[in-house]
């Protein structure tokens, strides 16, 4: 018999203070805490049903039956859910991205947050929010933050078993209406995954400085969010992103996620600031540039970034909601 089907939806998030480096690679425990903003309209839906008598889990992504690396990652994640729920049945999983296709932002954060909620419910587990966040973390570290809407902090935690490493809401999305303007500079698949990039960066001579600076960035970011101070938030977000990429640049072999248009966008954002527009960038493990600004300035920021040579597309996001059950 096929068990109860559960479907959940979750959005991607953009890190304002980055997670980049692990203290435990198996449990996905971070070397530092991180803070993010969940984004509206860029997400994933996951439908999960256990049972049906199959010998293996079945995964379909956007309607296409999928095997290989992605399916293995989902099965490993479902194994954690099965172990917690004392169940053995294989599952049927259908994932559908609500992220516009081909923008290089189909982040695993939304996927594993949606999967954590749908799979835990389908297996009969009723996890509290920290437990759900810790489960999502096992699929992809940043997924721990996509469980919640608005501004979110993921705690590094101290324990070796990781039970104190989960995310919590810092401020709900109603607290502060900022816009995130995403400049898509390349839709080519990335050459180095976050997982591999973090391992490589851990041997960078700049990695100890990266880790040592995190607590100060977290404190400044919490205060900026509380005070709704865009300049304070933006400056620390830029600093965190540049330090993360600087540590990667100094790794061997070096890690360079930027394309020429990425650098073009950085300079355009600084030029906008010189023109009096409060706009601040951040960049994750890829070439896209995400720019924080006020709702009033968003059209001007979008137009300026669209004119940067090499920018393929612009998407503007409001703060988004956390993971939700649909059925
Ligand atoms: O969650 P992962 O393993 O995809 O790593 C995410 C890493 C960054 O996006 C670069 C930073 C972050 O905090 O989300």
Structure characterization notes:
It is built from 10 helices and 14 strands. The protein is an alpha+beta fold and 327 residues long. The chain has 2 domains: 6-175, 2-Layer Sandwich (Ribosomal Protein S5, domain 2), CATH 3.30.230; 179-317, GHMP kinase, C-terminal domain (Alpha-Beta Plaits), CATH 3.30.70.890. Strands 1, 4, 5, 6, 7, 8, 9 and 14 form an 8-stranded mixed sheet that branches. A 4-stranded antiparallel sheet has the order 11-12-10-13. A hairpin with a 4-residue loop joins strand 2 and strand 3 (29-30). Helix 2 (108-122) crosses helix 3 (129-139) and helix 7 runs antiparallel to helix 8 (230-249). The longest helix has 20 residues, at 230-249. 49% of the residues are buried. Bound molecules: (3R)-3-hydroxy-3-methyl-5-(phosphonooxy)pentanoic acid. (3R)-3-hydroxy-3-methyl-5-(phosphonooxy)pentanoic acid binds at residues 15, 18-20, 34, 108-109, 140-142, 194-195, 284-285. The site of (3R)-3-hydroxy-3-methyl-5-(phosphonooxy)pentanoic acid (PMV) has 14 residues, from helix 2 and helix 5.
Outline:
By secondary structure, this protein is an alpha+beta fold. The chain contains 10 helices and 14 strands.
Helix and strand sequence = EEEEEEHEHHHEEEHHHHHEEHEE
Report the bound ligands by name, code or SMILES. (3R)-3-hydroxy-3-methyl-5-(phosphonooxy)pentanoic acid
Shape: globular
Mean pLDDT: 95
Helix content: 25-40%
DSSP E strands, number: 14
| Domain module tally | 2
CATH class of the largest domain: Alpha Beta
Briefly note the CATH topology name of the largest domain.
Ribosomal Protein S5, domain 2
How would you characterize the largest beta sheet? 8 strands, mixed
Terminal-residue CA separation:
19 Å
Radius of gyration: 19 Å
Low-confidence segments:
none
- Specify the CATH architecture of the largest domain: 2-Layer Sandwich
- Per DSSP, the total helix count is 10
Our estimate of the beta-strand percent is 15-25%
Structural class: alpha+beta
């Amino acid at each position: 018999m096929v068990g109860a089907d559960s479907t959940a939806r979750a959005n991607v998030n953009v890190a304002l203070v980055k997670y980049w480096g692990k203290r435990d690679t198996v449990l996905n425990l971070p070397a530092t805490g991180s803070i993010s903003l969940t984004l509206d309209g860029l997400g994933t839906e996951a439908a999960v049903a256990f049972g049906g008598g199959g010998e293996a889990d079945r995964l379909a992504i956007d309607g296409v039956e999928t095997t290989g690396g992605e399916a293995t990652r989902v099965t490993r994640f479902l194994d954690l859910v099965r172990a917690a729920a004392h169940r053995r049945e294989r599952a049927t999983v259908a994932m559908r991205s609500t992220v516009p296709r081909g923008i290089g932002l189909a982040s695993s954060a939304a996927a594993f947050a949606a999967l954590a909620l749908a799979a835990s419910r389908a297996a009969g587990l009723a996890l509290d929010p920290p437990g759900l966040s810790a489960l999502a973390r096992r699929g992809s570290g940043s997924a721990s933050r996509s469980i919640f809407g608005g501004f979110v902090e993921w705690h590094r935690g101290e324990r070796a078993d990781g039970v104190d490493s989960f995310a919590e809401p810092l401020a709900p999305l109603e607290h502060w209406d900022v816009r995130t303007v995403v400049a898509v500079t390349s839709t080519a698949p990335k050459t180095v995954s976050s997982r591999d990039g973090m391992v490589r960066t851990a041997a960078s001579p700049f990695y100890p400085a990266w880790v040592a600076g995190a607590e100060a960035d977290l404190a400044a970011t919490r205060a900026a969010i509380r005070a709704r101070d865009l300049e304070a938030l933006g400056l620390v977000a830029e600093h965190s992103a540049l330090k993360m990429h600087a540590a990667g640049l100094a790794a061997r072999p070096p890690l360079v996620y930027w394309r020429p248009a990425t650098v073009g966008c950085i300079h355009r954002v600084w030029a906008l600031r010189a023109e009096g527009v409060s706009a601040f960038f951040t960049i994750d493990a890829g070439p896209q540039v995400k720019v924080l600004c006020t709702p009033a300035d968003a059209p001007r920021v979008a137009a300026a970034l669209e004119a940067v040579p090499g920018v393929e597309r612009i998407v503007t996001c409001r703060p988004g909601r956390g993971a939700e059950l649909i059925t």
